[in-house]
Amino acid sequence: MRFTPRGYGGTRRTPDQVKREGWKEQGLLAVALDDDRLTWPERELVRQLGEKLYGKRPQDGEATR
After folding, report:
1. Is residue 6 part of a domain?
2. How many domains, the chain?
3. Contact present, 30 and 22 (Cβ < 8 Å)
4. What is the pTM of this model?
5. Which tens digit of pLDDT belongs to each residue from 20-36?
6. 62 found inside a domain
7. N or C, which end of the chain has less CB nearby within 10 Å?
8. What is the C-alpha to C-alpha distance for residues 37 and 55, in angstroms, rounded to an integer?
9. Angstrom distance (rounded) from CA 56 to CA 16
């Protein structure tokens, strides 16, 4: 017995594949601040852009508003 209709099977994309396709197809960029592929200045730039666009992140232990 099949649990999915024909044509709906396949493999699930990895989060990195989703991010890569989002960048290439729609110009969207998803970056984690703790990504090991980034240098400290690159992480700092990402943090500053995030704060400029969306505001500061709550610190550890603070309640979200």
Report:
1. no
2. 1
3. yes
4. 0.68
5. 999 999 999 999 999 99
6. no
7. N
8. 24
9. 25
